[in-house]
Fold this sequence. Notes:
- The protein is α/β, with parallel strands linked by helices.
- Helix content is 32%, strand content 23%.
- A 6-stranded mixed β-sheet has the order 2-1-3-12-4-13, with helices on both faces. It has a 5-stranded mixed β-sheet with strand order 9-6-10-5-11. Strands 7-8 form a two-stranded antiparallel sheet.
- The longest helix has 14 residues, at 3-16.
- The two termini are 16 Å apart.
- The model is unreliable at 1-27 and 29-33 (pLDDT under 50).
Amino acid sequence: MTGSTTARVARGVAAAGLAAALAACGSPSERAEEGTDAEGLTTLRIGATPMPHAQILEFVNENLAEDAGLNLDIVVYTDYNQPNAALAEGELDANYYQTAPFLDEYLEGNPDADLSYVSDVHLEAFGVYSQELTDLADLPEGGEVGVPNDTSNMGRALELLAAEDVITLADTGGSAPSVDDIEENPLDLVLTPVEAAQLPRSLQDLDAAVVNGNYALEADLLSTADVLAWEGTEDSEYANGLVVRSEDAAAEDMVRLDELLHSDEVRQFMEERWEGIVIPFGGGSSED
Length: 288
């Protein structure tokens, strides 16, 4: 188990005890008069990337939130670097867009940001996509493969390529690998770091690219490119989850929101809309 996995498990155990603290806790919105609207609903301002996170929150807001006493004000971001800063600065009540290792990386660089990962909500499978090739075995010698340029997602992309025997990685002792950790590269591939959101549009200039599931969905890559390989999802540490300021981790409205995100209704919505790419945790036969 890696260090980031251990941290995620510890947070998951802590999240399991949230319900016990409900009576003693109040939400950030409940502590502000403007947090409750004329209908008695608590408004939570949630940051999310467009797909699938914002769409999942929209489904919750339209179908489940009112009965739980909530109203979700969804703020959409296209830059991975903004939602954590906005949350730490109090501009958001929570965000939903990232993995626990990504949060760990952010907190290492921003030690004053006291943020907590609540629980796993869904997993987006990484894929190797190409507009030129139909089989990973056809990668040309000296070919160029795009990978995300942030630490955690780059490591995840390299691990996928290693799992497919495209490259061999050194043992990093649990830390996310980088291009410097490539020990063997039989095809002498050029691994090009690209901002994750830009990878789908950069695909036309690459032989292949390892793309985050949400950005592949946004760009409809399943219709415009071939999938050469999928990331394995069993026991993955790369689920996406709800993140809050640590002081609000046991707040009643945050617990209610987390419960809605793990409901049977949300599970069914994810499975029907994004079968195979977005894999829900919780609801039905939970994978937690």
